[in-house]
Amino acid sequence: TLFYLFRKATMERISPFFPPLHGIPRADDRRVVSGILYVIKHGLQWKDAPAEYGPYKTLYNRFVRWSRLGVFSRIFTELANQTPFDGSLMIDSTHLKPTARRQVCAKRGLRASHRPDKGRIEFQTPCICDGHGRPVLLLLTEGQVSDYKGAAILQHLLPKDGTFLADGGYDAAWLRESLKARGMTVCIPPRKTRNTAFPFDKT
Prior knowledge:
Helix content is 33%, strand content 14%. The chain is an alpha/beta fold and 203 residues long. The radius of gyration is 23 Å and the shape is elongated.
């Protein structure tokens, strides 16, 4: 059964961003774009796309071509701008640990270093989102950079006023003061090791 990920009303909103047709009609836009999102959403390889969305090469070629033209970026920007900024900002980060070296060793019958951190390049990606979960700022740092140091780099790009939410990993007095100086309401739970606890809204 064909499952469209876009309603007709949504297609009418985003279709003006599609490249114009030149001669040969292309495959149905709604079906192809739905197939592209289905593959990305479920983490599939292109060849594993459901047949109902058409040939997987059509999905792949359309994705690559429209990505290079900036079509998807303009669509995402248009859809994101439909929801106004609610004044809330949230920050968190995740670690990226490449494992390709160990996989290569396993395929060649070799044993990787017994030291898990030897030769490994790790990264951390602090990300600030608005209250709707839309990314506002994204940073790529070395894996050993602490959470609040990543926040220190991004804080100067934050808008003034609003509410800033984070977990205890960002509990630093200087960060609180810096955010308050920008007119922001800070909601960060204190670390358990902190002698003086700061009030915060648990809801």
